[in-house]
């Protein structure tokens, strides 16, 4: 173990191993970053789709509310007309 060649080989081997570990860890970090970027992109696209669906549903609910108000108005007019017919038939409005 006192030979300089052995220590040189140990140093070269250690440097090679450290370089390999560094290279692999760097590649792994880049791969994970790209994977997370892809997932983030997918989530953003899903979020945009949900936003468009939410806007569509909101507009449909607004349209339904308008229709319900129109039906309520018609019912109010119908109620007024029925009351007028009732008063006319039974002579309530004649004093």
TrEMBL record:
Keywords for the protein's UniProt record, in alphabetical order: Membrane, Transmembrane, Transmembrane helix
Gene3D superfamilies named in the record: 1.20.58.130
Transmembrane segments: 6-29
Name under which the protein is recorded: Uncharacterized protein
Native source organism of the sequence: Microbacterium oxydans
